[in-house]
Amino acid sequence: MDTTEITALLDARSAAIHAKDLDRLMSFYADDIVYFDVVPPLFYAGADAMRDRFADWFARWSGPIGQQTEDVHVEDGGDVAVVRMLIRTSGTLATGREVGYWVRATDGLRRGAGGWTIAHEHVSLPVEFPQGTAAMHLVPGG
């Protein structure tokens, strides 16, 4: 199984997020993307909804958005693939506050005539029970 194209796509996506390059970022997503995010609503559907969501997210940062991936696992099944990974997002928010936190992410990809695109993405944070708050202090292996 050669996963070079998929890992290159993920690296390029991280670079687009770091640069807050919305057009480049959207090029990695299928037009019919379904995206489960850590923020409401329950999901976003379609490229237009994702463009709006990413534009809003980018505006919440004063500079580049750090993207560090760990524990990337790719399962390639021909014209479909599933990727699971941990992603550390970091940087300075528009409020001036420095942040850094790890999320869990799972991507479902399809290969078409133009190459791989992300057709489904699920990003989550663990929850501290019974408080019901996000566990943003966790680190890989910890």
From TrEMBL:
Key words of the record: Isomerase
GO function terms (MF aspect): isomerase activity
Sequence ranges assigned to domain SnoaL-like in this UniProt record: 6-127
Alphabetical list of Pfam families matching this protein: SnoaL_3 (PF13474)
Classification via SUPFAM superfamilies: NTF2-like
Domain of life, per lineage: Bacteria
Protein name per UniProt: Ketosteroid isomerase homolog
Native organism: Jiangella alba
